[in-house]
Amino acid sequence: MASMSLSFSSSLCSSRIPESKRRFHQREPIFARCVLAASKSSPGGGATAATKKRLWKEGEFPGITEPANTRRAPMKNVKKKLDRRSKANGWACTVTETLSDLIAKKQWLQALEVFEMLREQPFYQPKEGTYMKLLVLLGKSGQPHRAQKVFDEMLEEGLEPTAELYTALLGAYCRSNLIDSAFSVLERMKSLPQCQPDVYTYSTLLKACVDASLFDLVESLYREMDERLITPNTVTQNIVLSGYGRVGRFDQMEKVLSDMLVSTECKPDVWTMNIILSVFGNMGKIDMMESWYEKFRNFGIEPETRSFNILIGAYGKKRMYDKMSSVMEYMRKLEFPWTTSTYNNIIEAFADVGDAKNMEYTFDQMRSEGMKADTKTFCCLINGYANAGLFHKVISSVQLAAKFEIPENTSFYNAVISACAKADDLIEMERVYTRMKERECVRDSRTFEIMAEAYEKEGMNDKIYYLEQERQKVMDHHAAATKEEGMIARGVEIFTIQTVE
């Protein structure tokens, strides 16, 4: 495989790579060809537990022979009680394990159903960690309203709120771009002595403002952090750095980066490197990406697997398969593992051009190496088959995703809806859209845009009208929910303050 021709190639073969990483992989990198072509314990079992003195009944004390005419207490009733308790404990353990498994699989609806069933049992007392996991899961799943409900139920149970739990709730609102509700949670935290916001709270809120391009609020939050003597860390600066780069504010991006270079508390790290590489890679500015790669190496920052995945993705989008292959070979040479993201970037590169053959070869190689596919993997496969006109394979991909229990998020449904639109199968498109609504999956602007284009292509103006009405209804519902959350937030704030007092 040819080496990379630019000066960038010198970094891939730099002698600065640690000796521990300079081990050649014995297996031939055959994949390059496709590029070019809770623990359990028994109750009361502790060794240090105090031994209780037994109060014996007459005739039951050991060593005294029981008179023949004395009736013993019916022990079978005691045994039944112990059996029932044992079965209940076993059932509780099994169901709590199921809850943990559902949370790990990001199946929020099923997880909530199991959690509600557990809460009805007298022996189950949910702890802070369980609520934290549920809040984070619901936030990532785009369910801030349900996250607020779970949080309210936690307060009703009498569990003391913490800054971490409030930050998780704030994060749920931020992930759904409900900035006003997130700021409401922040104000509530300020009023509670034991739940004061910290650098993680502000970093979460800063990310939401950056993603929404609300840079005036970013500056306001920085001032507030300074007033409260909260020093931004590297994560905070990386978040803002990413936002400035995404919208092309390179002057502010350079200023933040310069501040990091002279700071003693938030020095740039490999994540900073990855952000800069990703900014220029996504914009297709390969020369700038490679130049910054060299600069970070000169700063003494070594790349990691994610860094190489960013390079592979950028080269793939520009169809620079020779450079993509060189980075892959270099990863093999230094035993950097190919991850799910690595394969996803390669699959996406072939999917964009409808190269179903190499896309399938990559996916098969991914499975043969035991790498687990995720939602993005199947989104790329569906898009690739749709671009290649192989719509029967779109169906098989959806079925395979169900078999693998792949989470069906907004991106997944949008990919399937788009594939149906490309196949001019509007009936199936509407059926998938109905399923999306039934699963309470968030419908975004892209969802309505795909369907509107499909209807416009067929001249179905009446469908476009009703779709616009539904889009407006979704937006109104979203606005009403936000207003209701604001009222609930004020009520919960009063309730929480009274409880603390």
Automatic annotation (TrEMBL):
Organism: Brassica oleracea var. oleracea
Family: Belongs to the PPR family. P subfamily.
Annotated PPR repeat ranges: 127-161, 162-192, 198-232, 233-268, 269-303, 339-373, 409-443
InterPro entries registered for this protein in UniProt: PPR5-like (IPR044179), PPR_rpt (IPR002885), TPR-like_helical_dom_sf (IPR011990)
GO molecular function: mRNA binding; rRNA binding
Keywords of this entry: Repeat
Protein name per the record: Pentacotripeptide-repeat region of PRORP domain-containing protein
Domain of life: Eukaryota
GO cellular component, one term: chloroplast
GO biological process: embryo development ending in seed dormancy; embryo sac development; pollen development; pollen tube development
NCBIfam families: PPR (TIGR00756)
